[in-house]
Design brief:
This protein has 1 helix and 5 strands. By secondary structure, it is an alpha+beta fold. The protein has a domain of 40 residues.
Length: 61
Amino acid sequence: PPPFLLAPGSLLLNHGRLFVGCGQNSALRLERLQTAGKPARSAEEFICGYKPRENDFFGAR
């Protein structure tokens, strides 16, 4: 398991890397993302433009 626990859909920014919680004590490191209507970009580019904060969430709650 990763060295941190994230609820499913929760985001974590760790040393310039972006992770999303996936359940069962797992997390996925996001390397490329594509949001609706936008071109795909690296996680680093996404972080600079989107500026995710701790406890941000992907998906419906």
